[in-house]
Design a protein that fits this description.
about 325 residues; five-stranded parallel β-sheet
């Protein structure tokens, strides 16, 4: 049993991500919004559970579905929302948008439009942690599709050879775009691939924030203590289509309904009440505060200025 304070923090993070994503869908559906988006609905327990184990100075790398990771790592929600609006007050000055959002101030090194692109970045960050003896660690979030990319295998191999302080988090939501992972992956559990690189591989219930928190915490402690890398496969599910308004006709309604029975947002309040004795009033207050915070973030984004025409020069490095 984890501490009550931690349990409440997990719920607040998950609910913030869910409400943020729901608001984004409403905004993209009712007005002109720049770019595209890949929503995290259903997977909130992974980001919340993992990031609750990390320090602010630790690093994470993300995927094209990165809003949840960014929020869970502690990025200011006003600046995250402003980035969705491509405003100058956004995390990336309005230059990154949904798929390339980052916030270095909290160790969020960036979402990535390239499948598996964040894996070597996390290994590089972990190498710097070891080289400087900073006590920091790095975490790479990636999907089941990325586990079949060369970058996955090269990253795990190098991290293991150099015994780097990095934790690899595979968010297995079953589908790489429209392809079920078992059509292109010969093993049931991606976690078993860790053995080929001499590291520990663990499967976590990606719909259970506490299970993710406990297993990620063990891996993070190991990495921080010099024990090297680990791979955790979180079995989870995305409720929305692959991106924006794409309709997931490649899966059944029965499958979606089955996974929603384990929805981390709807099931966790009952556990908080029964296991921790937290009242419904407290939970309602949390939800109200989150709603207000997100509405304020939208207002902040709407009222923020857009980038100047020449601002792109500030972010060109070569």
């Amino acid at each position: 049993m984890i501490a009550e304070k931690t349990a409440l923090a997990l719920y607040e993070t998950m609910l913030t991500i869910r409400k943020f994503e729901e608001k984004l869908f409403e905004l993209f559906s009712t007005r002109v919004m720049p770019g595209s988006m890949h929503q995290y609905n259903g997977e909130e327990a992974v980001a919340a559970g993992v990031c609750a184990c990390l320090n602010e100075t630790d690093y994470i790398t993300s995927t094209h579905r990165g809003h949840g990771h960014c929020i869970a790592k502690g990025a200011d929600i006003n600046r995250v929302m402003a980035e969705m609006f491509a405003k100058a007050t956004g995390c990336c000055g309005g230059m990154g948008g949904s798929m390339h959002i980052a916030d270095f101030s909290v160790g969020m090194l960036g979402a990535n439009g390239i499948v598996g692109g964040g894996l070597p970045h996390a290994v590089g960050a972990a190498l710097s942690c070891k080289y400087f003896g900073s006590g920091r660690i790095a975490v790479a979030f990636f999907g089941d599709g990325a586990a079949n990319e060369g970058a996955f295998h090269e990253s795990l191999n190098l991290a293991a050879v150099w015994k780097l302080p990095v934790v690899f988090i595979c968010e297995n939501n079953l589908y790489g775009f429209s392809t079920h992972y078992r059509r292109v992956t010969p093993v049931e559990d991606i976690a078993v691939r860790a053995a080929g690189y001499g590291m520990e591989g663990t499967v976590a219930d990606g719909m259970d924030a506490e299970d993710v928190f406990q297993k990620a915490g063990t891996a993070a402690e190991k990495a921080r203590g010099g024990g090297g890398p680990s791979l955790i496969e979180c079995k989870t599910y995305r409720y929305m289509g692959h991106s924006r308004f794409e309709k997931p006709t490649y899966r059944s309604e029965d499958e979606l309904k089955m996974w929603k029975l384990h929805d981390p947002i709807s099931t966790y309040p009952k556990r908080l009440q029964e296991k921790y004795g937290i009242s419904a009033d407290v939970l309602n207050s949390i939800e109200k505060n989150i709603y207000e915070k997100i509405e304020n973030a939208v207002k902040f984004a709407e009222e923020s200025p857009g980038p100047e025409a020449g601002d792109y020069k500030k972010f060109v490095f070569a």
